[in-house]
Amino acid sequence: MVVDDSRMQRRILSSQLARSGYEVLEAGSAEEALDISAATAPDLVISDWMMPGMTGIEFCQALRDRLQSGYTYFILLTSKTESAEIARGLESGADDFLTKPVSGDELRARIAAGERILRMERELTEKNRLLSSTLDELQAIYDSVDRDLVEARKLQQSLVRERHRSFGNAEVSLLLRPSGHVGGDLVGFFPINARRVGLFSIDVSGHGITSALMTARLAGYLSGNSPEQNVALVLTEFGIYDARDPADLAEQLNRLVFRELQTENYFTLAYADVDLVTGRVVMVQAGHPYPAILRADGRVEYLGQGGLPIGLIEEAGYEPFEAQLLAGDRLFLMSDGITEAENQAGVQLGEDELAQLMTLRSGVSGAAFLDALMQDLASFAGAEFGDDISGVFFEFHGAKANRD
Predict the structure, then answer these.
(1) Are 102 and 217 found together in one domain?
(2) Which residues, if any, are the signal sequence (predicted)?
(3) Is residue 140 domain-resident?
(4) Which domain range does residue 387 map to?
(5) What is the Cα–Cα distance from 43 to 115, expressed in whole angstroms?
């Protein structure tokens, strides 16, 4: 668009541009040019600076305010040569200027420069449009995944259907809190027979969807609802179930990981076979944090010798160990999300500090003990935890015949 109050000047410029293949619109004033621009936004404007009514600078500012999309390259025509005046024109929003009388070669060169800028601007606009569209698609995918993960969290929490059970002379309480939507921790228990119960605490490597899927598979292997599918149980010749030795169970799970699951994930395990009558406990530790016994007098004892995680080495062997629970003693199997919880200084809680917290809360029982422990962890590490938190808290009240 050529804007000039001189009809002759408009015709000269329009003819030069038309011969170069451009479609040219003409306006005799800035006001007329604004009306034309409302219907047809020009790609490039060549406007005289000094015109009756609205000046070229005022026209440039008004055009910039009105055009909502796209960019118009604006060249001012002027007889001014002072650098201060030229700077004022550029600061007003003009992109370039031409000094009268206009040279045809210089006009074509300035327009070619404007075309390059417009081409780059449109390429950027298109890239931004594609980027915005991609971000919208990614957001939609994220929202969909987020909804799925919310449901997955509910399903994973349902793997631990029973969070507390009383066995008359003993009780078990479970804690499971993933650090994200889903996690790699699993806790649970299952009856072995009328006088024994199996307790387990598992921590699968990682924290995401793969880890959560593996916990679901492991929950099936240690199901209390389907003893025929529980790899910890074996059917005896008398038609009743008995339990594998804890070390044999760890070896069996290790074989299953390599032969059936065929995954790069591994997991740590603490498993306890507890006699509800005598308080005798047979355990195995496979890379899991050391099981702790909170004695009736408030002392804390850590058990085990570490062991290799399950699914890490195919030929790994495991050793069982025993403990004796007396009336008032509590057994705690926990994930490393508890012992390795960090405060703002990056210092981990550790076993000694955990023992102090357990002693401090020794007067609290069952789920209330686990809730109190979570409050203590939150005070130490903050509300957000970097790892999944889980635990099995078993309380032994003494043999049935001797409870009173």
Answers:
(1) no
(2) none
(3) no
(4) 161-402
(5) 9
Answer yes or no: is pLDDT of 67 > 90: no
Sign of the dihedral through C-alpha 188, 196, 297, 271: negative
pLDDT level of residue 82 (50, 70, 90 thresholds): low
How many structural domains is the chain composed of?
2
Which range, of 202-216, 257-271, 342-356, averages the lowest pLDDT?
202-216
Is 148 among the domain residues? no
pLDDT digits over 224-257, tens only? 778 888 999 988 877 788 899 999 999 999 999 8
Amino acid (one-letter) located at 203: D
92 and 168 fall within a common domain: no
Give the domain-ending residue among 82, 105, 126: 126
Residue 135 lies in a domain: no
The per-residue pLDDT for 404 is: 40
Same domain (yes/no): 185, 70: no
Cβ neighbours for 217, distance < 8 A, ≥ 6 positions apart: 261
Q: Give the pLDDT of residue 149.
A: 64
Q: Which of 117-121, 204-208, 331-335 has the highest mean pLDDT?
A: 331-335
103 by DSSP, 3-state: which? coil
Of the two residues 111 and 271, the one the predictor is more confident about is: 271
Q: Is residue 133 part of a domain?
A: no
CATH of the domain at 351: 3.60.40.10
Burial of 118 (0-12, 13-18, 19+ CB in 10 A): middle
Give Cβ neighbours of residue 320 (< 8 Å, ≥ 6 apart). Answer: 245, 246, 247, 282, 283, 284
Smallest CA-to-CA distance from 196 within 158, 227, 160, 242 is with 242
- Length of the chain counted residue by residue: 404
> pLDDT digits over 91-131, tens only?
888 888 888 888 888 888 888 899 998 889 888 888 988 99
Do residue 273 and residue 216 come from a single domain?
yes
Q: Look at residues 126, 146, 179 and tell me which one is the last residue of a structural domain.
A: 126
Residue located via tokens 């804690």: 175
Q: What does DSSP say about strands 185-191 and 196-204: parallel, antiparallel, or unpaired?
A: antiparallel
